[in-house]
Amino acid sequence: MKNPKSATNKSNGVCTEYKLPSYVESFIKQYEGLRIFDVRVPVPYYRNVKRSHSDLRSLVGKGSPDEIALETRIIAQLKGVDLQKMGKEQIRQFMSEHGLGIDCSGFVAQVLDYWIHHAHAGSLLSNLDYPYRNLLSHIKVRLRPISNISANILTSDKNTDRVHLNEVMPGDLIRTKGVKRGDHVLLVSKVLKKGHKVVEIEYVNSNEQYGDQNGVRRGRIEITSPDEPLETQNWKDWDSKANKCWTLEGMKNNADDNGLRRLKFFDKLRNDIISEECHSNLRKK
After folding, report:
1. The pTM is what?
2. Residue-wise pLDDT tens digits, 28-66
3. Do residues 102 and 61 lie in contact, with contact meaning Cβ atoms separated by under 8 Å?
4. What single string gives the DSSP state of each residue in 127-193?
């Protein structure tokens, strides 16, 4: 890890904060503020249920920020829509109406693939174990590994190990369930530890819920009882209109199958994690 510092003074609230590498954070921020001409647009959620996986990644909820931005401009041009006359919310609505966005596994896969390449650790394809049903599925995965990823594959027992709460690190995954269907995956982006105890976890994901705030967003979990399950902690990502924390709802759904997971190739990425001393003034939200 880069810049490791030990937080030894527990009485004055000094903690150690572990964060994703700055280049990975910069990549995530491209999803949080996709550049469409002079406007920054948060990428909405999109899960492909109609298009073929042979389509462009940007059309099946698996695209990189550059791919999604380019396809948005192309479709707008074909439709005779002038994006330069539109504001953030209008552009985002246009993207949603035309199936341009990112789903949960596409987002996490893109971030991990970017991290792996920059860490000179191969590729997502070379580090994951995909379930091949037949020769055709093998070929499809080899040609389009991210387009054929899912939350279940990313967090499967073949690709991950369960992690104790006090061992969690940035880059770990949280396996949950979608509210409407299937599995869901969150990426741990920041961990705050006081001594050997985790006091807060930040995660980032692309979420189908949260109304017009769906898509790539962050949430926090305040750890109140480190020896208790993750779903019993204080989750902060509330939808004020629905009066629900959708990520927590997914966590409670079949809770025994959910939880913290560590990718089996995590050690290839560990050295790029940043740690620094900080003060544990937990935010209220």
Report:
1. 0.91
2. 999 999 999 999 999 999 998 776 655 789 999 999 999
3. yes
4. HS-----SHHHHHHHHH-TTTT--HHHHTSTTTEEE--GGG--TT-EEEEE-SSSSEEEEEEEEEEE
